[in-house]
Structure formats: C-alpha cells, structure tokens
Amino acid sequence: MIKLHQLARTWGIPNLSHFCVKIETYLRMTKQPYQVVDSLPLKGPRGKLPFIVDKDKKVSDSRLIVNYLKSTYGDTLDAHLSAEQKAIAKSFQRLLEEHLYWISMTSRWNYTEANWQTNKKAIFSVLPPVARDLAALVYRRRINSQILGHGIGRLSSQEAFDLGKEDIDALADFLADKPYFMGDKPTSLDASAYGILVNTLGCPIESPIKDHALTKKNLVNYCQKMQAEFFPELAWGGTNS
Ligand SMILES: N[C@@H](CCC(=O)N[C@@H](CS)C(=O)NCC(=O)O)C(=O)O
C-alpha cells in the first residue's frame, strides 16, 4: 500500500502543509488506498514534505507525485478535460502553488508574533523542548530565506497581501457558482485548490488575506464541501490536535 509521509494532523484540517493536503486529497479523490506516516521535512528526499513510498519507489514533490500516480494507476480525474481546460487548470494550479502559497507562508513565518507562535506550536511541539526551540529557530531562518528568494519577502506585508487578494478574487470569480473549479466533476486542480485555500481561510493564522478570503462565500462553501466530501471525519471549524 502507498505510504504518505506528511506532517501530523492538526488545526482540524487535513494538514497544516498545503502540499500534504493536496496529496492526501488526491489519494482520496482517486480512491487509492494509502497509509499515513507522520514525518518532518528533514526526512524527505528533497528536505520537503510530502513524499510517498509505493512498493520500493520513493517519490517527492507533489507535482511529481501526481504525475507518478497518474502514470502508474491511471488518470481518473482529468482525462475528460479538453486541452484548453487542462491549460486553464494548470495555470490556476501554478497561481495557487507558486504565488498564493508564498503569501500564506509569509503570514505564518514572517508576519505577527501571534501567528508565528501558533505555527511554531503546530509544527514543532512533536519534538522534545530543547530540540523544539532549536529546530524552530533553524527552520524559521530557512523558510524566511526561501520567502526572500521567491521575491514576495522583498515586498511589505501590505503589498504582499494586496497581491494575494488579487489571487483570491481570481479564484472566487473563476469558481463562481460551479461545484468544483473545472465544472461538475472534481479534478486534480481541486486537490491543489482545497490544499492552499483551507490553509488560508480555514486555519488559525490571522491575516488580511484570510479576512479577504472569508468574504468570498463561494470559496468558504467550497472548502467546507471539499472537507465534508473527502475528509468527513473532520468537522469544519474543529481543532483536533
Ligand atoms: N513544490 C513542493 C513544495 C513542498 C513544500 O514546500 N513543502 C513544505 C511543507 S508545505 C516543506 O516541506 N517545507 C520545508 C522546507 O522547505 O524546508 C511540492 O509540490 O511538494
């Protein structure tokens, strides 16, 4: 059976890691049996989570994991899409994963002290006390240098959140009143969208981007519906830790 290595569940959502939510959602959407292994990024082949182990094969990076799962077990979610629809879905996936994700990361690692403490507790409390503080310090430096390297960290918080609001507007406008991003059926874009959106509007990290996303009723309803459909064991707004 596929082993999915990811951070431990917390916050009443599938995972505090956007990309771990994406892969677990994808596995559930495709009804692929899997087993979760709680892990930390340093255990990942590229120093990141998630990664999967399938038989003797280890695959990391959520994009490559989805490609691997599609080529190994078939593409049951996206095969019906036209070339144009696939291009649109890919563009939104990149908006979510390569832009909005980094604004969400800024709000956790580099915005208010309260957010940092919430984030730190959720990630590092699995470690013993001394190791916890040290690991949090090292990782905070590491993630902040990634945020700087991406470029979003060179903007003021206000500028970054304003750009994030543009992403939220585009997502809300595109989803409109459709049940899923690409229409009546869930596709792999929904795994990405739910993963990044639930980690923006459905988690205890406060920011102008969360406030803005919460004004978009269709995005909130979408996340609630995705969670009820694919993670029925997690009540919306719960805080299981
Ligand atoms: N492009 C990667 C991104 C994965 C990623 O950034 N994972 C985060 C957790 S959300 C991580 O492990 N970060 C640790 C680090 O960068 O040191 C993917 O799609 O899987």
TrEMBL record:
<dbReference type="InterPro" id="IPR050931">
    <property type="entry name" value="Mito_Protein_Transport_Metaxin"/>
</dbReference>
<dbReference type="GO" id="GO:0016740">
    <property type="term" value="F:transferase activity"/>
</dbReference>
<dbReference type="InterPro" id="IPR026928">
    <property type="entry name" value="FAX/IsoI-like"/>
</dbReference>
<dbReference type="InterPro" id="IPR012336">
    <property type="entry name" value="Thioredoxin-like_fold"/>
</dbReference>
<dbReference type="InterPro" id="IPR036282">
    <property type="entry name" value="Glutathione-S-Trfase_C_sf"/>
</dbReference>
<keyword id="KW-0808">Transferase</keyword>
<dbReference type="Pfam" id="PF17171">
    <property type="entry name" value="GST_C_6"/>
</dbReference>
<protein>
    <submittedName>
        <fullName>Glutathione S-transferase</fullName>
    </submittedName>
</protein>
<dbReference type="InterPro" id="IPR040079">
    <property type="entry name" value="Glutathione_S-Trfase"/>
</dbReference>
<dbReference type="GO" id="GO:0005737">
    <property type="term" value="C:cytoplasm"/>
</dbReference>
<dbReference type="Pfam" id="PF17172">
    <property type="entry name" value="GST_N_4"/>
</dbReference>
<feature type="domain" description="Thioredoxin-like fold">
    <location>
        <begin position="19"/>
        <end position="113"/>
    </location>
</feature>
<dbReference type="InterPro" id="IPR033468">
    <property type="entry name" value="Metaxin_GST"/>
</dbReference>
<dbReference type="InterPro" id="IPR036249">
    <property type="entry name" value="Thioredoxin-like_sf"/>
</dbReference>
<feature type="domain" description="Metaxin glutathione S-transferase">
    <location>
        <begin position="164"/>
        <end position="226"/>
    </location>
</feature>
